[in-house]
Amino acid sequence: MAKLDESLIAALAPFQKLDRHQIREILDQAVPKRHDEGSEIFREGEEADRFFLLLDGFVRVVRTTPTGEQVILRHIPPGQLIGIAPALGRPTYPASALSASESLTLAWPVRLWAVFLERYPGFASHAMSAMGQRFQELHDHVTELATKAVEQRVAACVLRMVNQSGRKVEGGIEIAFPVTRANIAEMTGTTLHTVSRLLSAWERDGIVESRRKHIVVTAPHRLVILSGATG
Amino acid sequence: MAKLDESLIAALAPFQKLDRHQIREILDQAVPKRHDEGSEIFREGEEADRFFLLLDGFVRVVRTTPTGEQVILRHIPPGQLIGIAPALGRPTYPASALSASESLTLAWPVRLWAVFLERYPGFASHAMSAMGQRFQELHDHVTELATKAVEQRVAACVLRMVNQSGRKVEGGIEIAFPVTRANIAEMTGTTLHTVSRLLSAWERDGIVESRRKHIVVTAPHRLVILSGATG
DNA sequence: GTCGTTTATTGATCTTGCGCAAACTCCGGA
DNA sequence: TCCGGAGTTTGCGCAAGATCAATAAACGAC
């Protein structure tokens, strides 16, 4: 197997403070893997024996309720660690990770987590602050679900995806990975029907344009207003 | 000021593995404080300069939306650390902490967090696993808000409080701190009216009994069924 | 190309639970 | 003891959004 190139991760937040030699060490222990769109990276309840770095693509973190409904907890952009539950003393993954677009991960056995924390400067503090940020996001999410109306939630959800992964296209900003109406419904706690109606209405109003699985936001500021963000 | 007794914290999870001498060190750096019911321990947005241990009483973690609504994110029982956001690299507290019943805290300056992590065996791993558990809870909360109907959410919420802080009384199990209908509404993303109606209905059905600010669950199993926990 | 599946749209109807309003009860303080 | 405020109960009407249902468009496999 060809050696992984150091430039792959040298610039990423978790490893920013490390020298070439350390990057090399880390890469030599990593197992790279490609994931097709829709495929499972790890599954809820599975023994959590590895943690991952998402090099390219987008990942959806999903939970399934006892009654079979799916809830999308978050989307992860490239450059972030995923599946770090084992590092938090959890024996199993608390949610499933699905590849939202074709993607590439590196994986390490969970025993290396402690080693990384101790040996690589900046890794521990990055991990901590990533968790802090994640708490913040979850609190936001709960607050939103508890207080906002459906239209505001969907608007906020679309905006979040755009902010996290928007790429400029002519006429607006496009969400960089495939998203269905059902996906948005699973993120916002509503139904695909309602999401479809909202997107249709927004399209009539010139706020978004959408094709199958793709959404382009043409008037972000108006979405911000709809989302009820009181600044 | 009288020295704090070592037995106060020696048995608590974060400090379980420490010897007398270490417990002494920790206590000598702590600032104890009593909080009246309803008083603020720290406030959202405030500079996060201390972290706390809740020795006695119950604490509500609350966020206020830009539109003035309150959302109760969690209740914390005695023996747990609170306000550990600064340890996660956050410069300000992400939520407010209110004393739900008269309570007692110990506080340490945030710079000691790193010292505790390093010097006291078991502290770091306890902190990690507490965070892991907290993530789990937040994921549960999001899932619940996104998929369950109001009655199920309220039932689950009451059950959670009972499980966390229930004390046996004649005729059932009582939630150990004062809770109003409005509080439950703020936890479950509904209105106090709906909560009141639900509790009245449950009282008619013999599932709960409630006085002002106090709830006794007389038929927990029936609440479990209502909460839609498919086990 | 054709077939089958996945995704999206849209209408009609029904239900949940919110908003509003009014009254009542409990409790603490003057 | 009375008063005022906080907490609670309950009724009624309405609207947001779920559910049911049917169709259409896009795509992949063959």
From TrEMBL, chains A, B:
InterPro entries according to UniProt: cNMP-bd_dom (IPR000595), cNMP-bd_dom_sf (IPR018490), Env_Response_Regulators (IPR050397), HTH_CRP (IPR012318), RmlC-like_jellyroll (IPR014710), WH-like_DNA-bd_sf (IPR036388), WH_DNA-bd_sf (IPR036390)
Gene Ontology molecular functions: DNA binding; DNA-binding transcription factor activity
Signal sequence annotation: none
Keywords for this protein: DNA-binding, Transcription, Transcription regulation
Keyword Iron listed: no
CDD domains: CAP_ED (cd00038), HTH_CRP (cd00092)
Residue ranges occupied by any HTH crp-type domain in the UniProt entry: 148-221
Entry GO terms, CC: cytosol
Superkingdom field: Bacteria
Residue ranges occupied by any Cyclic nucleotide-binding domain in the UniProt entry: 14-97
PANTHER family, alphabetized: CRP FAMILY TRANSCRIPTIONAL REGULATORY PROTEIN, LISTERIOLYSIN REGULATORY PROTEIN
Descriptive protein name: Crp/Fnr family transcriptional regulator
Lineage of the species this protein comes from: Bacteria, Pseudomonadati, Pseudomonadota, Alphaproteobacteria, Rhodobacterales
